[in-house]
Amino acid sequence: MERPLDVVLALDQGTHASRALLVAADGSVRHRVVRPVALQRRGAAVEQDPEALVLSLEEAALEALAAARRGGMRPVAAGLATQRSTVLAWTRAGARPLTPAISWLDARGGEALEACPLPPARLRALTGLVPSAHHAAGKIAWLLRADGALRRAAEGGRAVVGPLAAFLVQRLTGGAPRIDAGNASRTLLYGLRRGDWEPALLEAFGVPPAALPACRPVRHRWGALHGTGLPLTAVHGDQPAALHADGAPRADTLHLNLGTGAFGLVPLQVPAARVPRGYAVGVADAGPSGRLLAAETTIHGAGAALAWIGDRRRLAAEVVLRLAAREPSSPPPLFVDAVGGLGAPWWRPHALPRWPEGEPVEDAAAVASVVEGMAFVIAASIAGLAGAMPGLRAIRAGGGLARLEPLLGRLAALAGLPVYRVAEPEATARGIAWLAAGSPARWRPAPSRRIAPLADDALAARFARARAALEAA
């Protein structure tokens, strides 16, 4: 009888979908299930239904496991990757939601962040992060200030307020609330040197210690998934999980994940203090063999920018993608991609997207200008980080938008580095599978195609204008 193929169940709970993939020890994806999830926007509020997120993950997991049985596969472990900086409150007993899931896109924690008595330089020194209203701390403080009953329950240890990952882990496995170091390090409450919640930060934001889940390593015995007996062996944030999609990450390569936002990570080979201001440092891996840190750049307007132009021009998503994949016949008008505000290194949440020289009339030109504006903001963001990483030799691009040749070609030219377009779009799921499987030696990088950096004087001139516009935004 043929031996069953061992696979890892990789769960990826993202902004717009929950995924369950079966990944073999060589990194090949043998099956995938996708369940869309809704995102509600009401004024400044950007929220999701926690129960719907749990249900989507459970349904996707059960369908994937059924496929494993039919296909002669044997699931041996599971990993969970989640969107970061999304927070909610829930009951410590039973993990029942007490609030909606406040999305990472939601910036209603801004006032609480401004009220924090610690200066931004001190916050960055303790956490490795550039303080932002999108991080969890401000939103947690805002929830506790807005609801006296919730605060009393949190102080009494009856309610938990924390990252979405901790809620999902508790619902999927039971036990006490726990959070992985990767998601914890994205909250502005985690001391990077301490490797745990930082008392000075909890006091500064008014967060009672009893309200938070316990911190654990990324690679940890989290428990068994309900109804399956399958051990959950790794939990992480989506972007640092994607850093491991091809196995152990290379220090000479910036790993760029192009999804709703764009996130570029590189393993840290210098002291965290040497990472330029405006860029984050976080936990890339943590387990029995130690801890790996990574420097990170964040751009808000990637897939979100295409959604924005689609809404603005009343174009279907498939039409926008078709137009975005075309190489324009002439240079598009200059577009400042501040969709969702400017991320690293500017951190201007109130910056607005605009065409400094006027919005184009034709839909094709409008979409092309957004794609080029996306390349400009990503290249400008990477340039500042690359200055502290002199050994940087390449960019490896994955995620849904890596299919856009006009975007990657411009990025290669502007960065002066080859860009390797990864054929497999499921970088986050592959990364969490590699971690959950215990770094299997047979793991193979996903196939990729090299895009050479070609000099383009006209593009460079437009980039110079774009950088000036970004600085002025």
3D structure, described in words:
The protein is an alpha+beta fold and 473 residues long. The chain has two domains: 5-239, ATPase, nucleotide binding domain (Nucleotidyltransferase, domain 5, 2-Layer Sandwich), CATH 3.30.420; 247-472, Nucleotidyltransferase, domain 5 (2-Layer Sandwich). Helices cover 34% and strands 25% of the residues. It contains 15 helices and 22 strands. The strands form six sheets. The chain has a seven-stranded mixed beta sheet with strand order 18-19-17-16-20-21-22. A six-stranded mixed beta sheet has the order 3-2-1-6-15-14, sandwiched between helices. Helix 1 (50-70) packs across helix 6 (164-173) and helix 4 crosses helix 5 (148-155). The protein starts with a strand and ends with a helix. The mean pLDDT is 95.
Structural class: alpha+beta
Number of strands: 22
CATH superfamily of the largest domain: ATPase, nucleotide binding domain
Quote the CATH topology of the largest domain: Nucleotidyltransferase, domain 5
Protein name: Glycerol kinase
Keywords: ATP-binding, Kinase, Nucleotide-binding, Transferase
Family: Belongs to the FGGY kinase family.
Pfam families: FGGY_C (PF02782), FGGY_N (PF00370)
Topology:
Elements: E1 5-13, E2 17-24, E3 29-36, E4 40-42, E5 45-48, H1 50-70, E6 73-82, E7 87-91, E8 101-102, H2 110-114, H3 120-127, H4 136-146, H5 148-155, E9 159-163, H6 164-173, E10 178-180, H7 181-184, E11 190-191, E12 196-197, H8 199-205, E13 214-216, E14 219-224, E15 231-237, H9 238-242, E16 253-258, E17 262-267, E18 280-287, E19 290-299, H10 303-313, H11 317-324, H12 363-386, E20 394-398, H13 405-415, E21 419-422, H14 427-436, E22 448-451, H15 457-472
Parallel strand pairs: 1-6, 6-15, 10-13, 16-20, 20-21
Antiparallel strand pairs: 1-2, 2-3, 4-5, 5-8, 7-9, 11-12, 14-15, 16-17, 17-19, 18-19, 21-22
Helix pairs in contact: 1-6, 4-5, 10-11, 10-12, 12-13, 12-15
